[in-house]
Specification:
5 helices, 3-stranded antiparallel sheet, 58% helix, globular, alpha+beta, 3 strands
Length: 158
């Protein structure tokens, strides 16, 4: 479990440091957009009150607290699963990525009332209107890794 917690901690800190640096130190919250390497990599400030792609994006306390509760419940379930059914290091790293990313977005909801998204990438004539953050990448990679590297133990006979 040490690898899970270490990965979660590193992911959480990296997420929060990048958010603070981009949103506050670089002033993205004030200026709204910074072109870094257009159109491939840009910074676009987006406060996400919902889930991916703006789903459930009502700016209401009920939605905010419900999303916090869901993220905490999923994190607890993943930790319980990995503790109960330990597997290899790739599954532990995946679990840590998912938990660290989820907790990074939970802290945003507690501090700002929404998740701070700022990474925007477009390519090949397609203009991507969506932004994301380090925590979003970690949650996606962690969930994918848990599927890919999950245990393949046969079920025990009753």
């Amino acid at each position: 479990m040490r690898l899970v917690f270490l990965t979660a901690l590193v992911t959480f800190v990296l997420d929060q440091v990048t958010k603070y640096w981009v949103v506050h130190a670089m002033g993205l919250a004030r200026v709204g957009a910074i072109d870094v390497f257009p159109p491939f990599f840009n910074l676009r400030m987006a406060w996400n009150y919902g889930v991916n792609f703006g789903l459930l994006a009502q700016d209401s306390p009920l939605t905010r607290w419900a999303l916090i509760a869901v993220a905490l419940a999923i994190s607890a379930a993943v930790l319980w699963w990995v503790h109960r059914d330990p597997a290899g290091p790739l599954q532990k790293i995946s679990a840590g990525l998912l938990v660290g990313g989820a907790l990074g977005n939970v802290l945003d909801r507690l501090v700002y009332g929404a998740v701070a998204d700022f990474i925007n990438m477009s390519c090949c004539g397609l203009n991507n209107p969506f932004a994301f953050n380090v925590a979003d990448v970690a949650v996606f990679a962690g969930a994918f890794g848990l599927i890919l590297f999950g245990t393949d133990k046969p079920e025990k006979a009753p």
